[in-house]
From TrEMBL:
Membrane-spanning ranges: 55-74
Domain of life per record: Eukaryota
PROSITE patterns (alphabetical): CYTOCHROME_P450
UniProt keyword Oxidoreductase, yes or no: yes
Cofactor(s) it depends on: heme
Record key words, sorted: Heme, Iron, Membrane, Metal-binding, Monooxygenase, Oxidoreductase, Transmembrane, Transmembrane helix
Protein name as annotated: Cytochrome P450
Cross-referenced Gene3D superfamilies: Cytochrome P450
Family stated for the protein in its record: Belongs to the cytochrome P450 family.
SUPFAM superfamilies (UniProt xref): Cytochrome P450
Pfam families: p450
The species this protein was found in: Phascolomyces articulosus
Length: 547
């Protein structure tokens, strides 16, 4: 055995002792060991390293503190007003105590308290001056900020990328799918989904056990939910090549999986601990659903890619598939890229549109005289023989309908937490404010669209401001419902088309009466990604109108 003994100098115990003595917290303990001092004296290099490590850690901490203090009080953003704590910490850290989904309210409060430019983080500012917003979004066209990268796991898509070249390329390939002419060719899908929508409402009214007054055939309908189903089904029809059938069956693996993933991402960013626990609990369900969704999408895309003329269909998906025919390899989208872009259409194009129609209905029910004005305008249009639903060409120029939609989007901006941009080279904002490269700019469109200097009676629903010759004309320079610049919503004309057709046919077909408690609850808003109702439902009484 003795032959196997290591020399005392490199016995395992002595090595452990040496490692311990190098750690700063073990100082006291190591001194109590009789061997420690003699070990150190025999290894002066160790002693030196120990001292050096202490010095370098302290130097780093002091250097870091000086940097933080300098950035807070002497840096280029130091003169911008804002809550003191946000000079040092990110607002996400400070806002952890707010109820999840309500950060946008705090942002608006800060903007009211400190002005149109507020410092909301060590290197982040929020702006709500219309000229500055025009500059950031339109003229300087700054790239997207880092928040988008958190969701980029869904793929490096047109929506999320901050790479200007990649964005330009994707936008060029995808734009034809959203041209006015192409959208017109998609109208049959929008109308057939609207037919299913009205059928679903009729069924819900019929099924409703709690008719308010059976004689009048009113029923209670969760209009928030069915509107969401309708918009998902339209995206299914136009971007996935087939309806999800939600209006008939209430469930489909694709929207369910995406909703679960988005919910988890938004919880993780709003409250990391709670979000991670939630993610861990639902992990296996989400993975199974995710696999099913991938299979579903792969089969659709492969069928279109290899099915030839027989499976050709005039829809958004076809435009992406047709990119395969491009001569330049750069202009072809891979099957994966096609799948990712269609998922993004589902995310960007369903809750946004259904939410806006839902908010329009809420505003109209709060202002019944405006609902009557809208109905009068819509009733002027007569359905032609064999025509079941009003079509877009009959609606697109109706002034009051467009006023209602614009005013709804003004009051209920879809991303009230702001849209984020990153300063890519030093700039002067609004002609006087130096903003260094790397600064994050939160464009607070929600605040601009409710600013009393731009909008008299800013919190009132006044569709009349959008009519020609109005006493309180709308300020078009302070209106950004679809953003502006190169990243303006690519689906804006498509969304307006869907919203006009759906809202007009809904108002034409039904008498809708508010339920007071529901109307009151609808004031409670939450915004994880898009603005929504806290309880994600809005019950109304509905009955078919006598035509
Ligand atoms: C009322 C409905 C809608 C509203 C209010 C809305 C609003 C917006 C806004 C504000 C942006 C800019 C986001 C940013 O810069 O961070 C955006 C971008 C986008 N939207 Fe919409 N949207 C709506 C409907 C739609 C629809 C129906 C689609 C597609 C089917 C769509 C697809 C997109 C895409 C792909 C982008 C990214 C464009 C790019 O970065 O080039 N949106 N939308």
């Amino acid at each position: 055995m003795s032959g196997l003994m290591l020399p005392e100098k490199i016995q395992p115990r002595s090595i452990i002792v040496k490692m311990f003595t190098m750690l700063p917290f073990s100082q006291k303990k190591s001194q109590s060991w009789s061997t420690a001092n003699s070990e150190q004296s025999r290894f002066p290099v160790l002693l030196l390293a120990k001292k050096l490590s202490k010095v370098s850690i302290s130097t780093f901490v002091i250097y870091w503190m000086i940097l933080v203090l300098h950035n807070a009080f002497l840096g280029p953003l130091s003169n911008i007003p804002g809550p003191r704590i946000l000079k040092f910490f990110s607002r996400l850290f400070v806002l952890r105590r707010e109820p999840p989904g309500t950060n946008f309210k705090k942002l608006k409060e800060w903007q009211n308290q400190y002005g149109r430019v507020v410092r909301i983080g060590p290197n982040t500012i929020a702006i709500s001056n219309k000229h500055m917003l025009q500059q950031v979004l339109l003229h300087d066209d700054l790239p997207k900020g880092p928040a988008y990268r958190r969701i980029e796991k869904l793929g490096n898509t047109m929506f999320f990328t901050d790479d200007k070249l990649l964005h330009r390329k994707l936008r060029r390939i995808i734009s034809p799918a959203f041209s006015t002419k192409y959208i017109k060719s998609l109208e049959p899908y929008i109308l057939s989904s609207n037919k299913s929508f009205l059928k679903r409402i009729d069924n819900d009214i019929k099924k409703c056990k709690c008719n308010v007054s059976r004689n009048e055939r009113y029923g209670i309908v969760d209009i928030w939910k069915v509107l969401n189903y309708l918009m998902l089904d339209i995206i299914g029809e136009t971007a996935f090549g087939q309806s999800f059938g939600l209006l008939e069956n209430n469930d489909h693996v694709v929207p369910r999986t995406i909703a679960q993933t988005l919910e988890t991402i938004s919880y993780i960013s709003a409250s990391p601990i709670f979000g991670l626990i939630k993610a861990a609990i639902s992990f296996s369900d989400v993975r199974t659903a995710n696999n099913k969704m991938q299979e579903f999408m792969k089969s659709i895309i492969m069928e279109r890619l290899h099915g030839g003329d027989e499976v050709h269909r005039n829809d958004i998906l076809q435009i992406l598939i047709d990119s395969q025919k491009a001569h330049n390899i750069q202009d072809k989208l891979t099957a994966d890229a096609i799948a990712q872009e269609t998922i993004v259409f589902l995310i960007a194009g369903s809750e946004t549109t259904s939410g806006t129609i839902g908010f329009a209905l809420i505003e109209l029910l709060k202002n019944p005289q405006k609902l009557n004005l809208l109905r009068d305008e819509i009733d002027q249009i007569k359905l032609e023989q064999e025509q079941a639903l009003l079509c877009h060409h009959q609606l697109k120029n109706l002034p009051y309908l467009n006023g209602v939609i614009n005013e709804t989007m003004r009051l209920n901006f879809i991303a009230p937490g702001g849209i984020e941009r990153k300063v890519d080279t030093d700039m002067v904002l609004g002609g006087h404010l130096f903003v260094p490269e790397g600064t994050i700019v939160q464009c607070n469109i929600h605040a601009v669209q409710r600013d009393p200097d731009y909008w008299p009676k800013p919190n009132e629903f006044i569709p009349e401001r959008w009519l020609a010759g109005s006493d309180i004309p709308a300020d078009h320079e302070a209106f950004f419902p679809f953003s502006a610049g190169s990243r303006i919503c690519i689906g804006n004309a498509f969304a307006l088309h869907e919203m006009r057709v759906t809202l007009a046919n809904l108002i034409k077909s039904y008498d809708i009466v508010a339920i007071p408690e529901e109307l009151q609850a609808s004031d409670e808003r939450r915004a994880f990604v898009t603005m929504s109702l806290k309880y994600k439902r809005f019950m109304v009484q509905m009955k078919r109108r006598e035509q």
